[in-house]
Amino acid sequence: MLPFIADLTPIEQERVVCAISAAVKYEIPANIVLAVAEKEGGKPGQWVSNSNGTYDVGSMQFNTAYLHDLARYGITANDVAAAGCYSFDLAAWRLRMHIRNDQGDLWTKAANYHSRTPRYNAVYRADLILKASKWADWLEVHFVTLDVTKADTVPSMPLQPIEVQRATQQTPASPAAKQALANSLSPKKYVPRSISFKTDD
User: Fold this and answer.
1) How many CB atoms lie within 10 A of CB 180?
2) Which listed residue, of 10, 57, 65, 94, carries a Cα 20 to 30 Å from 189's Cα?
3) What distance in Å separates the CA atoms of residue 138 and residue 30, rounded to the nearest whole number?
4) % pLDDT > 70, the chain
5) DSSP, res 49
6) Which contacts of 144-150 are long-range, i.e. CB under 8 A and separated by 24 or more positions?
7) What tens digit of pLDDT does each residue of 42-55 get?
8) Chain-centre distance of CA 125, in angstroms?
9) 3-195, which class in CATH?
10) Spans of all domains in the chain
């Protein structure tokens, strides 16, 4: 077990480990997968019905509408609902497809995980940016990370103790402060993070 997640609940531990693993596997920003996982807030075995007759299933609240394409591989809703990392892998696969194929900036594409309807996407997108910013800070505290927007990026080193204290402080709670932070995190200013396992000898 990673020592810095020992104080989390078992569901939170699974969320962190599985989200990071899925992000690395599908080569998408780890902080975005962590943000979607937190935003969805699902649990193994959870089924939430939607007004259009579909269900959001499991830890990542994976929508059953996407299972039609996956049925040919033998993937069922029960697989998605099960505990473990499988649902995170499917969610990361789906996020990767949105990021690669959809229109709009990175955040709009990632928010398509929730909805392509502009008004629902915009609300999800704003909160996703806030959560992804928090997780980017958390990742930089614990991992070597890379700016995914640059080809020849230099890995960032984990933060020192005083920086850890600053980076792990909670986001301001007031709606005005949250909106100000969201506005300051425009796609051009905010850097998505991926984890690097490369080390210099």
Assistant:
1) 12
2) 94
3) 11
4) 69
5) E
6) 144/195, 144/196, 144/197, 144/198, 144/199, 145/30, 145/193, 145/194, 145/195, 145/196, 146/193, 146/194, 146/195, 146/196, 147/191, 147/192, 147/193, 148/29, 148/191, 148/192, 148/193, 148/194, 149/191, 149/192
7) 999 999 999 999 99
8) 12
9) mainly alpha
10) 3-195
